[in-house]
Design brief:
Structural class: mainly beta
Order of helices and strands: HEEEEEHEEEEEEE
Largest sheet: 6 strands, antiparallel
Shape: elongated
Distance between the termini: 77 Å
């Protein structure tokens, strides 16, 4: 193969690769949830301290968990914490900036957030929860982005032990 034909082959190969990859109109990724490994605890007596995420918890203590919700290459659509509310009371706390980006259907008092379409890629709410019964109580964190089927929604779990 003549030398100039090799160069033409390389150029043609790269042109085809660029053409095929530019056909994708939207990159997709799975939404992520990252949580702190430390909970801020306020006891019945009003004493505030910190405990590890893996520590056992006490009935009636108010706990706050810092979180990062991230849509990756996509916008966030919703986030919810699902649990047995007779065993664990849950709510979300959002700063004033995040509250301006929440859409209809949001109810922070029951740990449910809907985001204004195509406005939020990442945010840092806090989960506030109070264990009401002893035992092990599953909490499911469901994060949805506009990535579509196969990528979203994604569910994470946390099962604190309450004494």
């Amino acid at each position: 193969m003549p030398h100039c034909m090799k160069h033409f082959s390389y150029i043609a190969f790269f042109a085809i690769c660029i053409t095929l990859t530019s056909c994708l109109d939207k990159a997709v990724s799975t939404p992520e949830l990252r949580v702190s490994n430390v909970l801020v605890r306020t006891t019945h007596a009003g004493v505030q301290d910190t405990v590890r995420l893996s520590d056992s918890l006490n009935i009636g203590d108010t706990l706050r968990l810092g979180m990062l919700l991230h849509g990756g290459f996509n916008y966030l659509v919703s986030f919810a914490v699902l649990t047995d509310t007779s065993a664990v009371s849950v709510a979300l706390e959002a700063d004033s900036v995040l509250q301006t980006l929440l859409a209809a259907g949001t109810d922070l008092d029951v740990a449910k957030m809907n985001f204004i379409p195509e406005k939020v890629v990442a945010c840092t709410p806090k989960l506030r929860f109070v264990p009401r019964k002893s035992g092990s109580h599953l909490m499911s964190f469901v994060i949805t982005s506009d990535a579509g089927e196969g990528y979203s929604p994604r569910t994470y779990t946390y099962e604190p032990l309450v004494r």
